[in-house]
Design brief:
Helices cover about 35% and strands about 20% of the residues. It is an alpha+beta fold.
Length: about 290
């Protein structure tokens, strides 16, 4: 038997499953499960409800903070404002004390307050078979009907803007999870600088996404997660039925990313990259959005 590797399943396999297993039909479902889409969209009459679910499985430190921001990012890429957050928190047997649970809850609350999001419910339990906490987040947001940003609206000739550079999340994760090993090789100051990328420039793209849609007619947006920039560009182009032309020399790779990826033999363009946003706009709006 051949087992699947760690990470996202093959897109072709996932696409077949999403077509084959659909559940009940609902005419109010504007965007359902599609490879490359960031969230579901449901018609609520005068506005759209945008819904997203995403787990935190790689990080062990500050997973509550991660979960809120990662899920909020996917809401914002559709031009919507994140509003309500629910969490399913699974904790490892024999490794969980009250301090761990309290810390995760406090992190969720801090991140939610930063974004103006209400913590609205969920589930918490100690689960057998886990070696670390796993948090599955569910974010809800809303957007006016005429402000929804659809990836299918990307057009030939659009310019793709990459915010901040890559790979913020992957670099911060490596620096936090492998700090002891990296301090020996790079020194404490470098590792601390890489760790701080989690907060500055940070992994949230909500601010730049909502700024972009207020500034120009954004055709499409996509935030970068597993698979990094390479997967993000492919997903964004494929869902619009287009190709993409990329000049590698114009991609801003953070210096800390370059160092750590070289050390571990990773490709910066394929490294998990939350904190960066792809924005597709007409050439005439490119500079306007960059300035904003």
């Amino acid at each position: 038997m051949k087992y699947l590797p760690i990470g996202k399943p093959d897109p072709k396999l996932l696409a077949r499953l999403l077509v084959q297993y659909t559940g009940a039909k609902d005419r109010r479902l504007v965007i359902g499960p599609v490879v490359g889409e960031d969230a579901a969209v449901i018609d609520m009459g005068d506005r759209y409800l945008v819904a997203k679910s995403d787990p935190i499985t790689y990080a062990t430190e500050r997973i509550g903070w991660y979960a809120v921001h990662i899920n909020a990012n996917d809401i914002a890429t559709l031009g919507a404002e994140p509003k309500w957050f629910l969490a399913t928190l699974l904790l490892p047997e024999g490794k969980t004390d009250k301090g761990l649970v309290r810390g995760i809850f406090a992190d969720m609350a801090r991140a939610a307050k930063e974004l103006g999001v209400a913590l609205s419910g969920g589930h918490t339990e100690v689960t057998p078979g886990l070696d670390r906490p796993i948090l599955i987040g569910h974010m809800l947001g809303e957007v006016a009907r005429d402000r929804l940003v659809l990836k299918t609206n990307a057009r030939p000739g659009d310019r793709i803007i990459l915010t901040k550079g890559i790979a913020i999340e992957g670099t911060a994760l490596l620096a936090r999870e492998k700090s002891r090993e990296l301090v020996t090789h790079f020194g404490k100051a470098f590792v601390q600088m890489a760790q701080r990328l989690l907060l500055d420039p940070g992994i949230s793209v909500v601010r730049e996404a909502l700024t972009a849609v207020k500034t120009a007619r954004v055709h499409a947006m996509h935030d970068l997660t597993e698979g990094g920039l390479a997967t993000g560009i492919r997903e964004m182009a494929e869902i619009a039925g287009l190709g993409a032309e990329v000049d590698r020399q114009r991609i801003h790779v953070l210096p800390e990313t370059q160092e750590l990826c070289s050390f571990y033999g990773l490709d910066p363009l394929g490294t998990i990259a939350s904190g960066s946003l792809l924005i597709a706009v007409a050439m005439r709006d490119r500079n306007k959005v960059l300035s904003a």
